[in-house]
Design brief:
The protein is α/β, with parallel strands linked by helices and 362 residues long. It has two domains: 125 residues, Enolase-like, domain 1 (2-Layer Sandwich); 217 residues, Enolase-like C-terminal domain (TIM Barrel, Alpha-Beta Barrel), CATH 3.20.20.120. It contains 13 helices and 14 strands. The strands form three sheets. Strands 5-6-7-8-9-10 form a six-stranded parallel sheet. Keywords: Magnesium, Metal-binding. This is Mandelate racemase/muconate lactonizing enzyme family protein. It holds the Pfam family MR_MLE_C. GO terms for molecular function: hydro-lyase activity; magnesium ion binding.
């Protein structure tokens, strides 16, 4: 047996690497919740989750007071059972962000242990489809950037042979959005993928109107145009536009993804391993999407998602938003437009514990 003998959680605040703005919010800081689980065979697995500025202490409290004590004495190999045990214990607070983030920190630590015990990297143990996956950039597309900056960022990504860029939309006037997008299209040519993200800022009618205005630009997808709980609105938009609709970063259960897929309200699934509750449910969503012939292009967390996208056959892209460089000793490998999943056993994230301790709060 691999009995859990200790489970600890900590919270570290990471500074944002660059100014990041969209139509509804700014990325204030990354509250990083880490869980370390130690077993009787002297292995320690580390998992994590995050917020973009608020809620971290609530996740930490839930872990320390309610969830981590339930792990002691359990067999760490029973990942599915442990996820369900903790989920059912928090039944009154699911489906929700705080509980999902807490579950994710535990589940990713358990998967780290599983991979360490097997001597295998995550991308192979979770499926092993291929090691290298296409990369697209979001860092050069934030809403506060002017048109010249958007163009420069897109040309830089294109020169690096990356597989596209994402640009934030939601300016007060449609004409401003279109002018920014068209300037980038004119610069990169007709073949280079451009995606857009509205960050849930629009009404159903406005999303349909803007999609019609964006269509001549030739977009790869229209991301989160409406509030995430408006499945019907997304379905109407999907039926009204030729632009693929992308959703998922703000969904917190497998059932929510099922509803989107059954209603043909999403053409791209952007499941976030932290917000869905860990690797265990992430893989279920990815396989559900595969059954509907839909691609998975997860949100953020590129250091972890690179391995998960590599694990499944319908993983299309990894989103380039680096955010762990201040607290890790290695970066993911990027070459010729591809991100390479780490080959070392475990999640493949080389944590810098001194740097994390310097940023510890709570």
């Amino acid at each position: 047996m691999s009995v859990i003998t200790a489970a600890e959680a900590m919270l570290a605040d990471l500074e944002v690497e660059t100014v990041r703005t969209d139509a509804t919010q700014s990325f204030v800081k990354q509250e990083t919740i880490l869980v370390s689980i130690t077993t009787s065979d002297e292995l320690t697995g580390t998992g994590y989750a995050y917020t973009i500025g608020t809620g971290g202490p609530a996740v930490l409290s839930l872990l320390r007071e309610s969830l981590l004590p339930l792990l002691i004495g359990e067999d760490a190999r029973n990942v599915e059972w442990l996820w369900r045990k903790l989920h059912d214990t928090t039944h009154a607070t699911t489906v929700g962000a705080i509980t999902a983030l807490a579950l994710a920190a535990v589940d990713t630590a358990l998967w780290d242990l599983r991979c360490l015990a097997a001597g295998q990297p995550l991308w192979r143990l979770a499926g092993g489809y291929r090691q290298a996956v296409p990369l697209y950039d979001t860092e050069g597309g934030w809403l506060h950037l002017d048109t010249d900056e958007l163009v420069r960022g897109a040309l830089t990504s294109q020169a690096a042979r990356w597989h596209g860029v994402k640009i934030k939309v939601g300016k007060p006037a449609i004409t401003e959005d279109v002018a920014r997008l068209q300037a980038v299209r004119d610069a990169v040519g007709p073949e280079f993928p451009i995606m857009v993200d509205a960050n849930q800022s629009m009404t159903s009618a406005e999303a349909v109107r803007r999609a019609a205005a964006y269509e001549p630009v030739g977009l790869g997808w229209f991301e989160e145009p409406l509030p995430a709980d408006d499945v019907g609105g997304h379905a109407r938009l999907a039926a009204a536009t030729s632009i693929p609709v992308a959703v998922g970063e703000s969904l917190y259960s497998i059932g929510q993804f099922r509803d989107y897929l059954q209603r043909e309200a999403a053409h791209v699934i952007q499941v976030d391993v932290a917000r869905i509750g860990g690797i265990t449910p992430w893989l279920k969503v990815a396989h559900l999407a595969e059954a509907h012939n839909v691609a998975v292009c997860p949100h953020f967390l590129m250091e972890l998602h690179v391995s998960l996208v590599a694990a499944v056959p319908n993983g299309r892209y990894v989103e380039h938003i680096p955010q762990l460089r201040a607290v890790t000793t290695e970066e993911i490998t990027i070459a010729d437009g591809l991100a390479y999943a780490p080959e070392r056993p475990g999640l493949g994230i080389a944590w810098d514990w001194d740097a994390l301790d310097d940023r510890r709060v709570g």
